[in-house]
């Protein structure tokens, strides 16, 4: 099947897959647990969350589970004192986990590093002390522009340990994109690496930090800490730039963990929205840990012998929740891989699984489709028998990719859990457990206490089989608290379009069994290889080029990446619509946004379809492009 037909196949998919009896017997949460939890949560969701919170350690217990007095600015576990690092690290040092592997890291060239919980604890303490010596205090922002390295985890945890707020910028973003985030977040310190290896090449990072700091509004940055990785040439600016290794060398390996209010900010993560300005999504210490702990233990059924590999980069929410914090809170071993999954050849993923005995593989449909192209020759060469659970996230997984993975990687034995969630939700919201009955392409049902539904624009539930908007009716602990410096946008984007409920921005439908099938974004946000990119962001990057008068960007289906961007451009007087211009604009976009923004095609037009009030009608362009009915065009200019 082609990806273009994915939606159609989704509508007709009726295969079901059941768990092996052994899975059910041994599961952390079996179907009975799940049913009971659902029933309990339906009657008393707060009791459900309170019980989940009790699985963690708190310095002081909460007075109240949920404070709704300033809704939609919900507060969870108010009055409690905690620090996520205590649960992710400190407490393990006093248990049998102390000498267990926390991190298995492999570099692209095959070099490898392993760290036990105790080693990680000491490294985090040293860096926490170093951060304090740089003047970093509770509430300060620390920006990370890091490749996948153990130091990335160390830096995140050390920041949280001293009570500061980390804000990570994915290393595939440009200097310009980083500058925008610096000017919004105003970090005191930036942590980066000289470079890293990707696809056989050393990629420079530090030089991009230098470039971004040349811009305005970057005065907040006092120090840049640089981790040695790729031995590429870097220029160290005296008084500002410090090598990580030198900075931590003399520091003590003990460091106090700051006691935080449950609602104190843990991190800020920027994500694309419908305007040109990314949203600073705010998460906090208390509720976030409850959400990821529960989901890791139930959805991935974590056992003491597991080796957990989530292939996401720590720079995205999936990495925050399921590469770093979740696995460490659960006391499992998290695998981190630096390089490209097809380097040096298309069996790298299978090689890693076999080498380290990975038991749970959590990945993205894009990667599955990419690997599928090579058939089964590569997986067949490796012993994948350690695997027991597979997971998918980031975009709809087409049933063909699901079944391929299930059969060829999971031996038709490992459940493949399709997990729906977002940067805003913090942890998995709609997902099967490994003991659930699975339908390829459906993320099945909401987890207990998550009241998700599919509704029309007025908020009324739509009948089974009909598409509608995905909403969540009740707050949950790991939810976004606000948008950094923009509480109004938080209210407007999520809570006011359909008053009183959380609007996810996705289209979905429910089937007769109550299973949810996600269809894609309902707003002007594209999902390229599982990464969000706003049409408006791409358009503002394009119009920043001197030749471009106007631009409109839409997502079009792609066999591997799920979606890629196509841009329609009108040029200013005196510029030619040529192949060279296409090349120039593509380079320009890369400079503005970074390699994450993949624009497949640029088409030049004399004019773009607009409403009479001058708004570009992307939906008309999209319908034309896909050969669909353009719908209501009564507001079109001419
Ligand atoms: O459209 C949905 C899609 O990814 C969006 C969230 O993107 P982001 O905040 O970057 O977080 C991605 C990883 C959590 C959602 O609005 N999405 C995420 N998971 C799925 C999905 N679409 C379909 N199926 C999924 N399992």
Automatic annotation (TrEMBL):
GO terms for biological process: acetyl-CoA biosynthetic process from acetate. Its EC number is 6.2.1.1. Residues 36-88 form the Acetyl-coenzyme A synthetase N-terminal domain. Residues 537-615 form the AMP-binding enzyme C-terminal domain. GO terms for molecular function: acetate-CoA ligase activity; AMP binding; ATP binding. Belongs to the ATP-dependent AMP-binding enzyme family. This is Acetate--CoA ligase.
């Amino acid at each position: 099947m082609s990806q273009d037909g994915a939606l159609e196949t989704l509508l007709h998919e009726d295969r079901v897959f059941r768990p092996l009896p052994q899975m059910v017997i041994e599961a952390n949460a079996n179907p009975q647990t799940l049913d009971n939890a659902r029933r309990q949560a339906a009657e008393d969701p707060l009791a459900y969350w309170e019980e989940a919170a009790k699985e963690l350690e708190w310095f002081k217990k909460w007075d109240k589970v949920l404070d709704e007095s300033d809704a939609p600015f919900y507060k969870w576990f108010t009055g409690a004192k905690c620090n996520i690092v205590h649960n992710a690290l400190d407490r393990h040092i006093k248990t049998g986990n102390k000498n267990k592997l926390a991190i298995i890291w492999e570099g692209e060239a095959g070099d490898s590093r392993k760290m036990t919980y105790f080693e990680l604890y000491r490294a985090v303490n040293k860096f926490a002390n170093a951060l304090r010596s740089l003047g970093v205090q509770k509430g300060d922002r620390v920006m990370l522009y890091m490749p996948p390295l153990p130091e990335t985890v160390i830096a995140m945890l050390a920041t949280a340990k001293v009570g500061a707020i980390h804000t990570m910028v994915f290393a595939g973003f440009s200097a310009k994109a980083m500058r925008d985030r610096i000017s919004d977040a105003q970090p005191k310190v930036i942590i980066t690496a000289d470079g890293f290896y990707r696809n056989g090449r050393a990629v420079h990072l530090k030089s991009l930090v230098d470039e971004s700091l040349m811009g305005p509004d970057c005065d907040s940055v006092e120090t840049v800490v640089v981790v040695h990785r790729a031995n590429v040439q870097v220029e160290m600016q005296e008084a500002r730039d410090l090598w990580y290794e030198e900075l931590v060398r003399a520091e003590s390996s003990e460091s106090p963990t700051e006691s935080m209010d449950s609602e104190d900010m843990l991190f800020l993560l920027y994500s694309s929205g419908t305007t040109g300005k990314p949203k600073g999504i705010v998460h906090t210490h208390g509720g976030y840990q409850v959400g990821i702990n529960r989901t890791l233990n139930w959805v991935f059924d974590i056992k003491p012998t597991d080796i957990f590999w989530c292939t996401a980069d720590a720079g995205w929410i999936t990495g925050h929740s399921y590469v770093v914090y979740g696995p460490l809170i659960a006391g499992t071993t998290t695998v981190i891989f630096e390089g490209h999954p097809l380097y040096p050849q298309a069996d790298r993923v299978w090689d890693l699984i076999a080498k380290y005995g990975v038991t749970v593989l959590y990945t993205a449909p894009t990667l599955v489709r990419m690997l599928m192209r090579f058939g089964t020759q590569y997986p067949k060469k490796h012993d994948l028998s350690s695997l027991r659970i597979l997971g998918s996230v980031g975009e709809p997984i087409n049933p063909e990719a699901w079944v391929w993975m299930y059969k060829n990687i999971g031996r038709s034995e490992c459940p493949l859990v399709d997990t729906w969630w977002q940067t805003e939700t913090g942890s998995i919201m709609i997902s099967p457990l490994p003991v659930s009955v699975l339908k390829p392409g459906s993320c099945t049902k909401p987890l207990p206490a998550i009241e998700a539904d599919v509704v029309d624009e007025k908020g009324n539930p739509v009948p089974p089989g009909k598409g509608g908007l995905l909403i969540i009716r009740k707050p949950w602990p790991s939810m976004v608290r606000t948008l950094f410096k923009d509480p109004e946008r938080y209210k407007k984007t999520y809570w006011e379009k359909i008053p009183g409920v959380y609007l996810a921005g996705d289209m979905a439908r429910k089937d007769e069994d109550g299973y949810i099938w996600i269809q894609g974004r309902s707003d002007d946000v594209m999902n390229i290889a599982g990464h969000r990119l706003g049409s408006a962001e791409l358009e503002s990057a394009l119009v920043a080029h001197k030749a471009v008068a106007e631009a409109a960007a839409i997502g079009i289906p792609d066999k591997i990446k799920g979606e890629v961007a196509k841009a329609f451009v009108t040029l200013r007087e005196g510029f030619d619509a040529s192949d060279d211009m296409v090349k120039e604009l593509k380079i320009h976009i890369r400079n503005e946004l970074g390699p994450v923004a993949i624009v497949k095609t640029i088409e030049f037009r004399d004019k773009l379809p607009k409403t009479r009030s001058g708004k570009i009608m992307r939906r008309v362009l999209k319908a034309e492009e896909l050969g669909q009915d353009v719908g209501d065009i009564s507001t079109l200019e001419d």
